[in-house]
Amino acid sequence: MDHFLYRGGRLHAEDVPLEAIAAAVGTPVYVYSAATLTRHFRLFDEALSAMPHLVCFAVKSLSNVAVLRLLADEGAGMDVVSAGEYLRAKAAGVPGDRIVFSGVGKTREEMRIVLESGIRQVNVESEPELEALSEVAVSLGVTVPITVRVNPDVDAKTHAKIATGKSENKFGIPIARAREVYALAARLPGLRVVGIDVHIGSQLTELAPFEAAYAKVASLTGALRADGHSIERLDLGGGLGIPYTRSNEAPPLPMDYGAMIERTVGHLGCEIEIEPGRLIAGNAGILLTRVIYVKSGEGRDFLILDGAMNDLVRPAMYDAHHDIVPVIEPEPGLEQQPYDIVGPVCETGDTFARGRDMPPLKAGDLVAFRSAGAYGAVMASEYNSRPLVPEVLVKGDHFAVIRQRPTYDEMISRDTIPPWL
Question: Which residues are catalytic?
Answer without folding.
Answer: 346
